[in-house]
Amino acid sequence: MRIPRSTAGRRRRTAPLAAAVLCLTAMTRPDLAAAAAPLPPAAAPVLDWRPCASGGPFDCATAKVPLDYREPTGRSIRLAVVRRKATGPGRRIGTLFLNPGGPGGPGTLQMPQWYEFFPKEVRERFDIVSWDPRGVGESTAVRCFDSDLATAVWQARVPAGFPVGARERAAWTAAYQDLGRRCQKRDPELLRHVSTTDTARDLDLLRRAVGETRLTYWGTSYGSFLGATYANLFPDRVRAMILDGNFDPRAWFGEGTGTGLATFQRLGADIGAAATLDRFLTLCGSATAANCAFSAGAPAATRDKFAQLSTRLAEHPVGAWTYAAAIDDLLTNLYVVHPAWSQAATRLEELWQGRAPEPSPPLFPQPAKMPYLGVEQAAAVLCSDSPNPRDPAAYQALAELGARRAGAAGQYWAWASEACAQWPGRAADSYTGPWNRPTAHPLLLVNNVYDPATPYRAAQAMAAQLADARLLTVQGYGHTVLLNPSTCAKNHESRYLVDGVLPPAGATCRPDRPPFATGTPKVDTDTPPPSADTPRDGTDTPPLSAVKPRGGMDTGGGALARVAD
């Protein structure tokens, strides 16, 4: 397959529950529009590019797009857009659009932070453009508090990580009920128009605005689902798409998965996190303490040490470091192997020694002025788009299920969707499939085998559902291959984006640097990836033995998915 060169550059420079519990769990389902029905045309926005900062390499612009694509001349909203021009003079192919995931990921912040992770040839040959999706950041944003102080007061009510015990559960539920009420009062119309489908339509207008006849796109995490949505709404407009860290589209909408599960349980995020956490402890235990501070000298001893620490923190927090806060910090820092895995191990060791660590440092440089990125922005997309239990009391049962199937990760991810229990907005426009519409050109999917948020099985599901896609397997760790580099993968990605050449079927790559690399035994990168035949009925477990929580959940039980050495 060869992809034609763009013409734009020549035209312009410019977590099993009892069946009764699940069946009685009411689900929220977005109001579904007839996605295939033709919509009135909307005008492409004009992008008035200007330097984001004087003398800096990034340009900024604002695009006006319709709030409701069924009424393109009605209310408009703004999208904040960022661009870095191709660095290879005379070699430019066109524009590559990035969506960094989320939902709710601000592209104007994350694209500049991630820019150097893109393959060199891609940076040379493409302008790279991203944007804050509608409802997010510097675009017309969902913002449900009157001031930063009001936001901080609300945040102080929410237990860190996830709630443990009846008191914390009551506080958590009350806080998110209050959030829903606040958001309904501020801009209820906007809440109905921040769906993935709305954003896919925005992306198509941005494509037109930069003069591209077909879309070249890189979507990470949730951005993979956005890409799949675009590819099925506009299949003839696809030039090339890399989907990295993949969602299962049918699971997002609750199809073919365990009845009554919350979104991230259906997506298998808890399963992926449990498997990756197990590898973190195994590899740490295989390393010396000089290379992994939390190592107890052997994998089994290190996993036991982690179980003991979890129980201790549940009974006796170290300063602000509760059991749930420590789990939150650890799971988040599994996303980027270098340097976050070593830093997370150091914080675990400090907690083991009874000392409160400093908070996790930012993984990427932060701008002097950060856009507002409140929790309501991600909730607005997730809760309007994807069905979740509407009874707040259901989430404790889901967390118990999560603990049985994925330990602490199961608790964490079960509660991650609870904001949707009483969320007021339902998507007015939501494309729910089919997912196999033939595209003008094939798509390239990329996934780490041990991804703590988007498990490998989800990439297999995505590949099976799309009409024409090739899956490149990376025998690595962390959330997305882009942020956990593999030169092998970059080479394949470059050839695909530049020349339209897919990797061979069944191709695999390895990361450039394994975790705790110095002094660590060779990573078993020849282990086959998890089987595509893994059950998807909500009772499956990661590639490790059945989860055996220690103690009740209200005392921190369920922190460790036990595995055989």
UniProtKB/TrEMBL annotation:
Highest rank taxon of the organism: Bacteria
GO molecular function, one term: hydrolase activity
InterPro entries: AB_hydrolase_1, AB_hydrolase_fold, Pept_S33_TAP-like_C, Serine_prot/Carboxylest_S33
Protein name as catalogued: Alpha/beta hydrolase
Signal sequence bounds: 1-33
Pfam families on file: Abhydrolase_1 (PF00561), Abhydrolase_4 (PF08386)
Every Peptidase S33 tripeptidyl aminopeptidase-like C-terminal domain range: 409-509
Domain AB hydrolase-1: from-to ranges: 96-266
Chain spans, region Disordered: 507-565
Family designation: Belongs to the peptidase S33 family.
Keyword Hydrolase carried by entry: yes
Gene source species: Streptomyces adustus
Keywords carried by this UniProt record: Hydrolase, Signal
Keyword NADP: no
